[in-house]
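Minutes, project check-in
Item: structure for the 628-residue chain
Input as provided by the requester:
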Amino acid sequence: MNTSPFRPWLFVLALLLPLPALADVQVEVSISGVDGKPLDNVRTSLSLLQREGQLITLRTARDLHGRAAAEIERALQPFGYYRVEVNAALQPVGEQDLWSATYDIAPGDRVPVTAVTLDIEGPGADDELLTALLDDWPLQPGEFLDHQRYRQGKESLLAAATPLGYRDADWAVHRVEVDLDTYAARIMLRLDSGPRYVFGPVTFESDEFDHDFLEKFVLIEEGAPFDQGQLSAQRRAFSASGFFREVDIEMLSPGEDQPNVIPLRVGLVPVPPNRYRGRLAWGTDTGVGVQFGWTRRYLGSRGQNFSLGLAAVQERNKLAGDINYVIPVDPLTESQVKFGARHESKDLNFEDVDLDQGGETRIETNLLGALWQSPTRYWGPFTVTPEVGLTFVQEEYDVFEVLFGNLPQSSQDLIRERIGEQAYDTLAPDFSALAAQGRLTLRRADGRLYIRDGDYLRFDMLYTSEAMGSNLDFWQTRLQSWHIRSFGDRSRVLARSRLGYSEADNREVLGINFNDMPEYYEFRAGGARSIRGYGFESLFPEDTITGGKHELVLSLEYEYEVIPDWSIAGFVDSGNAFNSWDDFDEKTGVGIGMRWRSPVGLVRIDLGVPLDDADESFEVYITVGPEF
């Protein structure tokens, strides 16, 4: 038997032959001929590009390169390119393990749309509102095919049909046909509207409130097209009222006789009826103080509410108490009637008026009022809240005691006799007035706790006369404003103003000017919300004791965020209270501050320095809450 000799070198050669295909290489990819979104889609779709910079075998590189032309063609079709030519090359670049893949793309012309067929079938075919949506279809004959616009058009049409009540609407036909022979595209769409659903009656599950009252919160109209967005808005309306801690809106099954009508059942869990608050506090303007508050969130079953507040502070032994009763008229527009009573009293002694000796008096003010807050309106981006009402004010104090209270009674009687009863009545007034008042508030803000862009304006008018049963005649107007603007992500500029004007008689007694108006309505400047650097309400005309008829205060502040939620600020405040322009004595304060955006509101710490005469060389202010 003749056997061929074994040749081991042939076996070794067979093992070495595939080694080049198994070698690891890196591939650089270069694409030309397209740009913009088509290029982005090509880069996302190209498998070889996803492995760029990685070590892969040459065989893998060639396999991925072989798929590239088809991947590029598919990536360009959504943009209407159906005649794409790709000049592809894969070759080594100098170094043994570095290869280059180049794709020169000739996308050709985009395929035009030559026909668009849009139809609606079902009950919606006769709905003018639904059929009108077809007029906004984004692709029309003569335009180039764009699959992204086609898809967006489909989604938009379905989204627009849902608020019209066609919650089951779907596409019965949705097809794009591209004829490569004639190089033309046809779009065929048929929407099956399904039944049109409408809202049915709304019922309530609540034992605490009358259904007549709850119906005032209802936004949804029976018979209106069913819209999920309306359900969300309705839930927010109940939640924002402050009466309910849980709101559950259940869609009930349609009845057999009305299969397209969806009734609603609203389940409401009220908040606890009572809320109590107590606080021990210290303020730079007031010293140590205590506060107590009780709110009865609802009385009876129609949403009427009651609140009681008491406060006492160290500064001038101030006491204040408020009682308010509110009757909702239209909860959705915040229209309501308020009845309120307030007592406020504070000491006035000889030291407060820069005398070396004297006595003291207690300024006591009592107010009783009724106010109607009309429905909130909208003017462009502003919410507009008008209010009108009547307030009865009674106030008394005795400046005669401040000036001469340290003297024996006989000396006081002698002084009183010499100055006369009219002068004494001026020093110890007993004001009683029924005042008509109005307020207009405009507000817009891009946030609740921290405002980066917003405006606030409040205009107040007050009028009383002897014809209304008062023992004095005067009227007053006030204007307060805030303007906040942001520059970049870290800077804010805040501008603030307070303007006040009163038309009232005044009398001079013992060289002191007294305005014929309650001290409660007179103006005093100074403090955290006025002119920083000066004590709270420490600025008023030099020839008066209680305050001025007019006020002008302007403020400008710059704030810069240094780290998230923490900012530094610089400010200048200027103005004063006065009785006439001739005695306007402008006071200016400057300072720096720190701001912290806490979870409960903006915390401000300011150091104000007076540039004019002041009792102190600086003042520190701490306030919490939004600017307005």
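Outcome recorded: The chain has twelve helices and 29 strands.
No further action items on this chain.
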